[in-house]
Amino acid sequence: MKLIYDIGDKPKFSQTVVFALQQMIAIMAATLLVPMLVSGYGLAADPAAALFGAGIGTIVYLLCTKRKSPVFLGSSFTFLGAYAASIAQNYGYWGMLIGIAFAGAVYVIIALIIKVVGSGWVNKLMPPVIIGPIVALIGLSLSGTATGWLATNGGADYNLMTIVVGLVTFLAIVIASVKGSKTIKLIPFIIGIGTGYVLALILTLIGNAAGIEAFKILDFTPFVNAFGNFSITSIVDFPKFFFLKAFETNGQYPLDAAAIGNIALIYVPIAVVELAQHIADHKNLGNIIGRDLITDPGLDKTLMGDGLGSVVGGIFGGCANTTYGESIGCVAITGNASIVTIFTASLGCMILSFFTPFVALINSIPKCVMGGACIALYGFIAVSGLQMLKRVDLNNSKNLFVVSAILVTGIGGLTFDFGFNEITNGPILSITSLAVALIVGIITNIIVNNGKLGTGEEEFEEAPVVVVDEPNGEIQQSKKDKK
User: Fold this and answer.
1) Which of the four pLDDT bands, split at 50, 70 and 90, describes residue 482?
2) What is the pTM of this model?
3) Residue 261: is its pLDDT beyond 50?
4) Structural domain contains residue 5
């Protein structure tokens, strides 16, 4: 796609601040939600600290990738099962920190191996016929989250008004992106989310005045918590960093060699599975910005950045980090791949995590508003994956089976589950549907190509060209040469 700002471009300072704010808004809802869920498992995690951790983790990633990969790292949902498992076994704060360190070490070790053996195997293992539907799957598998937020505003009850607010948010983003001026086209999410927020506020005020429950969309609780008992912490507050909580706690399960080994068994397999998501995200981002990130800066560097960024972010915020599809979608829609923007957004997250009003404002954004924004964000991810399939011959049944296997198993949510976690009533280890789809796709590709890894491109031909012989009206048919 045509970029307005390439990775090395430096917009004006005032523009950079606005663009960075947009990136921050795009990733914040999910980044702040993970520590809230962790707190529900019985271990206090501070959303402001997670925000700081995401910011500093992203800076580590940008440095490791030589400032060539414009993506933000936020709190990973994939490790929620691991958090719950280690908390249930009373490993406490240290258990999570050690687990995140193990997960990061997996990426670092794989990065070192790739540095020695090279990354050429990635393109062979994941050709367009594989990576195209996998990237599309990332967006499509997240679509349920977006529509769920629209329909229930993050709750349990269906509400038509929240759907209206979400769709207004989405349409405002569309109009700003397509019909707006050059500047407006670069900040469609600020315009859209701002529009949705204002509409939600108006409806909520009407709902409170008239006693209409369906209109009560915006929750004022974050503001009440921040300003109910006004003090200096209502303006500026020190994030409750995770490593400080770890040093403060006592009486936890003794972390002997057996305990550490058990923690490794909980976290390491999930990190290995996440490798597929990492590669798919960077293939997708590279397709958007017109660069092969697997080659330059290299998969070893992106993995190193992701691993170290996750560990550093976890030390402060308590949550392992990962590349965010919301950030990639934001780059795709705005055409702004400037590294300066991502770096500024990282600094912004770190600084604003100390300001209570800002954290309260972000926490108050209704889920339906974010759901409307995510229609665009997740949709662009899915479409970019489909674009990778344009050189794949889907008339060939071999390729059709591969793509079908990936999409159906992925969208259908097929997982490989092991063990049982009593605190979550779920598995201790769950191989995600994305990883399962990738495994099934690769196996199918090998089978249909007689033990080889087909790309899906080698037998691609242009569609038949119909030619009419004007003098006698006869219809002739020919094919263009193979490309």
Assistant:
1) very low
2) 0.78
3) yes
4) no
Q: Domain limits at 210?
A: 13-478
Residue with tokens 């399939």: 389
Q: Does a structural domain hold residue 7?
A: no
Q: Is residue 67 part of a domain?
A: yes
- Confidence tier at 461 by pLDDT (50, 70, 90): very low
pLDDT tier at 422, thresholds 50, 70, 90: low
pLDDT at 481: 43
- Residue type for position 50: A
pLDDT band at 236; cut points 50, 70, 90: very high
**Is residue 81 domain-resident?**
yes
Q: How many domains does the chain have?
A: 1
